[in-house]
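### Sample
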Amino acid sequence: MPINIPAELPALEELLSENIFAMNDARATSQNIRPMQIGILNLMPNKIETELQILRLLSNTPLQINIDLIRFDETAPKNTPASHMQAFYHLFSQVKNKKYDGLIVTGAPLGTLDYEDVHYWPQMCELMDWAKHNVQSTFYICWAAHAAMYHYFGAQKSLLDGKLSGVFNHKVQDEQNELMRGFDPEFWAPHSRVAQVNRSTYASISGLEILAESEQAGVYAAATTDKRLVFVTGHPEYDTATLEQEFARDTQSGLLPQVPSNYFKNDVPEHGIMVRWKSHGNLLFTNWLNYYVYQTTPYDLTQLT
């Protein structure tokens, strides 16, 4: 079954060119099934790029999915046309009366700020409280994972000595957990962040399980035992060139960034990129949709509590 997205969304043409089964909303209305309702709160600066990355991962499933792109306010982002935001995004205030099978909250380049200094932190807290009762399972990525750990459990982050950027080896800690089903015992995943939450903090929280971690990058995936909250500190959605683009941007800004680890062949940018995370990124989202969302959500979403 396909992912259902608006006919005019730029990501649709790209997905179809990749032979990904996507259909527009007009065709979807003729399908006599109950599609999954998935919200995406996109906090990344380049909205269109992130939309495509997330939608590509959500499309690898036999389930039909309806997507709502969500934002907090009408502030125009620097890297996305205002017309795009007006055409395709819903204000959170407009959708918070709905219930969702799943919600994805992306990362954001806010790691150096205290949470309370983020200008939309009150709205973020409202959304996280709302999601506990109106979403079956919420998938928090990178900065959002740390923010949610802080909001729900009081987990403090600490700034790293430098930016953690690259593709790192991880080990599965619970192969029986359905989110890790089909994973190799060791796998690679991208990270791009400046802060971390200590492993001991995750381990101290009752009802929270560490599912995968890295010696270099720390805890990668954790989830509550009721499957309602998923925390992923890396970026399984990243495209081939995303870390390269971030490295070039930081270099041009005079930040003197370190070359992303284990990303370029021989760690030399001119030697090309080693892509070795995409299959597990797809598997992670497929497992979440199937086992944490579809297998647990009520058919009648009004019954969700």
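The mean pLDDT is 92. This sample (Homoserine O-succinyltransferase) is used throughout the tutorial notebook.
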